[in-house]
């Protein structure tokens, strides 16, 4: 019912050039405080989506700091993921409710996970439990007296379906710390009742996806995937998911193309999350919507000339404008990845994207496909504006949204639970 994932080791020293001296000292100091402790990160998918992306880098980084850290992914029956996708959608605001059977499936699967952990005598000093899929775990496990349990929510909780939220609320009270990406996401019922940490995600500057790539190499890769290097390209990198509004991106592209002849659009969704049963239907729907336009390139199951990470890097690097037209977004790693490459970003005016993009300074926030189309045209026509915004975008990522800062926030949450039980801390960047 669960498996461990090993990640290649990294060296903390390699991150030092990307962070301030103060942050490097804080990280090594907190690692010293936590030395000898055993830490686990738990989530529900090995690949696909932002949490898997963060953990594949954070687990080796914590290890490199001298904190014994492992990664465990649960492996429940498929029906669990049908239910947890409903929960995910409803927590992001979708209407509806779950049946009693659905709730039984959810709690029953995590009960099985808890039983397996206990049978295997799995113990840890610090348990980082990611996202709603695993939320019941702290209640269902027999906790070691000194262990610290931290739940980390990565989704957009701006306006959750209250019925589902009410059902989940008691589960929060079994954790020592709750981490949210934005202050806006903290449910009012827990705001003053539980210790809350605000920690927006960050990207790994050493990942193949984020290291500097020559534009010429980027164009070679996208050309090998069918893009014409002589014409402009815009891209959205995202799992095929309704909240990412791929249809709206196509609408925006169609509008922009009226002013930018020859414009090409890439929708890159090469990794579907194994905990998302809706993905294939979504690919079919978007593909239908794109019709037979040869300049809309939809990549879901493509043969690649390189790794997926390098392909993402290449598309973000080769595009003059990158889009993330989400209608809900806890925090878009894709937004930060493109901004790190000094791209002027156009993002949906929702959730974490509002924190990531300062409208008119390091990108644009949009509320409709029409607005998105107009901004695409503006940024493709005005090279100076595009370059200026891209420069601001890179600087804001460097200041706020790199992995070491996020790692420090999580470690502080764990340490504060042990030393300041009951107090609320805020780790804003
Ligand atoms: N991603 C990828 N290949 C793809 C599509 C997405 O590697 O074809 C990655 C993307 O680069 C980012 C992550 O998946 O690192 C998505 O995280 P984000 O926070 O943007 O959205 P989520 O999928 O968690 O909703």
Protein model, in words:
By secondary structure, this protein is an alpha/beta fold. The chain has two domains: 220 residues, 3-Layer(aba) Sandwich (Rossmann fold); 186 residues, Glycogen Phosphorylase B (Rossmann fold), CATH 3.40.50. 44% of the residues lie in helices and 14% in strands. The protein is built from 16 helices and 13 strands. The strands form two sheets. Strands 1-3-2-4-5-6-7 form a seven-stranded mixed beta sheet, covered by helices on one side. Strand 12, helix 13 and strand 13 form a beta-alpha-beta unit. Helix 9 crosses helix 14. It is globular, with a radius of gyration of 21 Å. It starts with a strand and ends in a 10-residue tail after the last helix. 49% of the residues are buried. The C terminus is likely disordered. The structure holds uridine-5'-diphosphate.
Chain-averaged pLDDT: 95
What order do the strands of the largest sheet run in, or round the barrel if closed? 1-3-2-4-5-6-7
CATH topology of the largest domain: Rossmann fold
CATH 2nd-level architecture of the largest domain:
3-Layer(aba) Sandwich
* Cofactors, ions, other ligands: uridine-5'-diphosphate
Count of helical stretches = 16
Topology:
Layout lengths: L1 E4 L15 H14 L3 E6 L6 H15 L3 E7 L3 H14 L8 H20 L6 E5 L6 H4 L7 E6 L8 H11 L4 E4 L7 H4 L4 E3 L16 H10 L8 E5 L8 H12 L6 E5 L10 H12 L5 E4 L8 H11 L2 E4 L8 H8 L3 E5 L4 H4 L6 E4 L2 H13 L1 H18 L2 H17 L10
Parallel strand pairs: 2-3, 2-4, 4-5, 5-6, 6-7, 8-9, 8-11, 9-10, 11-12, 12-13
Antiparallel strand pairs: 1-3
Helix pairs in contact: 1-16, 3-4, 8-11, 9-14
Bound molecules: uridine-5'-diphosphate.
């Amino acid at each position: 019912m669960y498996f461990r994932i090993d990640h290649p080791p990294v060296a903390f020293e390699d991150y030092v050039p990307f962070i301030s001296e103060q942050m490097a000292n804080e990280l090594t100091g907190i690692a010293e405080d936590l030395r000898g402790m055993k830490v686990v990160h738990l989530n529900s998918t090995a690949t696909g989506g932002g949490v898997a992306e963060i953990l594949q880098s954070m687990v080796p980084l914590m290890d490199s700091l001298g904190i014994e850290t492992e990664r465990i992914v649960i492996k429940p029956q498929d029906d669990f993921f049908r239910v947890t996708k409903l929960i995910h959608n409803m927590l992001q605001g979708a209407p509806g409710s779950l049946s009693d059977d659905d709730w039984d499936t959810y709690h029953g699967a995590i009960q099985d996970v808890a039983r397996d952990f206990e049978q295997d005598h799995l113990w840890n000093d610090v348990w980082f439990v990611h996202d709603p899929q695993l939320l019941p775990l702290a209640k269902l496990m027999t906790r070691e007296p000194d262990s610290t349990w931290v739940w980390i929510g990565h989704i957009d909780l701006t306006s959750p379906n209250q019925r589902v939220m009410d059902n989940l609320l008691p589960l929060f009270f079994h954790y020592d710390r709750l981490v949210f990406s934005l202050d806006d996401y903290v449910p009012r019922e827990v705001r003053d009742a539980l210790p809350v940490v605000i920690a927006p995600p960050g990207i790994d500057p050493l990942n193949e996806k984020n290291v500097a790539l020559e534009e010429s190499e980027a164009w070679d890769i996208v050309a090998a995937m069918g893009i014409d290097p002589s014409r402009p390209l815009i891209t959205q990198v995202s799992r095929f998911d309704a909240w990412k509004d791929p249809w709206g991106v196509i609408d925006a592209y169609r509008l922009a193309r009226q002013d930018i002849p020859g414009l090409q659009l890439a929708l890159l969704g090469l990794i579907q999350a194994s905990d998302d049963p809706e993905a294939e239907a979504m690919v079919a729907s978007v593909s239908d919507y794109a019709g037979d336009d040869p300049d809309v390139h939809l990549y879901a199951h493509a043969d690649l000339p390189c790794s997926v990470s390098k392909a993402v890097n290449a598309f973000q690097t080769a595009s003059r404008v990158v889009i993330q037209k989400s209608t809900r977004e806890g925090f878009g790693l894709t937004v930060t990845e493109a901004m790190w490459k000094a791209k002027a970003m156009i993002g949906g005016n929702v959730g974490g994207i509002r924190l990531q993009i300062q409208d008119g300074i390091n990108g644009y926030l949009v509320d409709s496909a029409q607005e998105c189309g107009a901004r695409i045209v503006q940024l493709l026509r005005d090279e100076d504006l595009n370059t200026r915004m891209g420069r601001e975008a890179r600087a804001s990522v460097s200041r706020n949204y790199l992995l070491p800062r996020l790692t420090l926030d999580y470690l502080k949450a764990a340490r504060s639970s042990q030393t300041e039980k009951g107090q609320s801390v805020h780790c804003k960047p």
